[in-house]
Design goal:
The chain is mainly alpha-helical. The chain has one domain: Ubiquitin Conjugating Enzyme. 43% of the residues lie in helices and 10% in strands. The protein has three helices and three strands, in the order E-E-E-H-H-H. Strands 1-2-3 form a three-stranded antiparallel beta sheet. Helix 2 crosses helix 3 (120-174). The chain is globular. The N and C termini lie far apart (56 Å). Residues 1-136 form the UBC core domain. Pfam families: UQ_con. This is Ubiquitin-conjugating enzyme E2 T. Residues 134-163 are annotated as: Disordered.
Length: 178
């Protein structure tokens, strides 16, 4: 499993919100999707868990239509498993594992949980369809933008290398022999 974390600009005094992205795991219905999540850091973090929700719609028994996630690592004991020793990266990885292995016995979406338990093929097809509609389309735009940016970055890199070489040559001429 690969957990890609991309944080937006963050000013601790202005806001406790961050955004991140998780890549859908290989050989899951979410494969190929990039899922955006909102991460809210409470004032008492790490003594309280972060509040994390999906911004990208996802078809999953433990994630509701508002993006809220039913996961022990996001709840305080005694009902939850949050500990101050956990960090956001660990929690995101556990959310990605939850995506790959739903917990139908503790659902937020009872109908999806029932489908997962008793009609896995239908669940898988719907989850793949939602991933294609909501998470992969965004990915295609990012890939196209990255191709254009890669060309720009290569050109910038060539210019930077040429400028550095020129500066090094100038400095070697100016250095006195010792």
């Amino acid at each position: 499993l690969v957990c890609v974390v991309k944080l937006t600009r963050f000013n601790p005094s202005a806001s406790s919100k961050r955004s991140t992205e998780i890549v859908g795991g290989a050989q899951t219905p979410y494969e190929g999707g990039i899922f955006s999540l909102e991460v809210k850091i409470p004032e008492r973090y790490p003594f309280e868990p972060p509040n994390i929700r999906f911004l990208t719609p996802i078809y999953h028994p433990n994630i509701d239509n508002s993006g809220r996630i039913c996961h022990d690592a996001l709840k305080l004991p005694p009902k939850g498993a949050w500990r101050p020793s956990l960090n956001i990266s660990t929690v995101l990885t556990s959310i990605q594992l939850l995506m790959a292995e739903p917990n139908p016995d503790d659902p937020l979406m009872a109908d999806i949980s029932s489908e997962f338990k008793y009609n896995r093929h239908v669940f898988t097809e719907k989850a793949k369809k939602w991933t294609q509609e909501h998470a992969v389309q965004k990915n295609k735009g990012v890939v196209e933008d990255d191709k254009e940016n890669a060309t720009d970055q290569k050109e910038s890199s060539r210019k930077r290398d040429a400028l550095c070489s020129l500066r090094e040559a100038e400095q070697s001429v100016k250095r006195p022999c010792v």
